[in-house]
Amino acid sequence: MPSTAFNTSYEAHSAEPEYIETNRSLIRSLDLSEVSRLLDLACGTGLLSDLVLEQRPGITVCGLDLDRQQLKLTEERFGEKGLYAGNGASGAARGLPSFILVEGSADTLPFASGTMDAVLMGNSIHNLPDPGRLVGEIRRVLRPGGLFAFNSAFYAGTYVPGTEKFHQAWVKEALIYVMNRDRELRAKGEPGLKRKRGTVSRASARRWLLPREWQDVLESNGLRVSRVHEREVRMTRRSYETVGSYGGFASVVLAGYPVELACEALQAAVQPALDQTGFTTVPARWLEMAALKPEGPDERAKENR
What we know:
Elements: H1 11-14, H2 17-28, E1 37-41, H3 47-55, E2 60-65, H4 68-80, H5 89-93, E3 98-103, E4 116-122, H6 131-141, E5 142-152, H7 164-187, H8 202-205, H9 211-220, E6 224-235, H10 237-244, H11 247-253, H12 259-277, E7 282-292, H13 297-303
Parallel strand pairs: 1-2, 1-4, 2-3, 4-5
Antiparallel strand pairs: 5-7, 6-7
Helix pairs in contact: 2-3, 7-12, 10-12, 11-12
């Protein structure tokens, strides 16, 4: 039985070995040899930044996120390494990489045009309400020849054929957990649980895009796609439990219920769903894409305006 005290941030899932290795594989697939200034967009807990500095020590990384809770976790992560002191000066002063944190929106970037060699997004691009506006901003802050890359576990293709039965059983078991909790409360004479409809944002409810559709978004906004890859990952029981404990996910899957209860229910439902469907691990796919901002006199002229 899971505890009722939850950390509903993304921290737990981002610490899972398969999650870390999946993101490390993305970084290793990229040519960062010419990158000296990189933006980790929607940086979350700072995992992608950490993996970038693992591969390219000595560069400057800027992490940007709108969620202060996530920024706090990232600040702690890099503060322990001596790389973050409010403005990145601590690491730079000792010849270590600079790490800078900025609170801000991904679709209105607070950076001058052409100032980034690379922009990365780790498992977050699907959350943005206007992909075209987002990519337009990314293109603006990239220098000519600059790289944009992202991955996502939330796209049309993430469910491997044959695994639908697990995901259906998972949600069903979570709803049974909630109904049992409701009955327990009513048996004690307490008010039951009421589900509030209409609590999911439009961004969360948006249709997942096909790889080809993501490619169209990038190319129609001025980037040239250089790599499209679908990576299969084996999800463990623990993986699904930590996904379920993330409030941002639980509030969509069990929309309308108190977030902590939704997290608790999804976490408790994983093992029964695995038992019912006979899975020990569940395959899932991640989409990886990389694109470049075109080079040439016209592009450089735009940056100098």
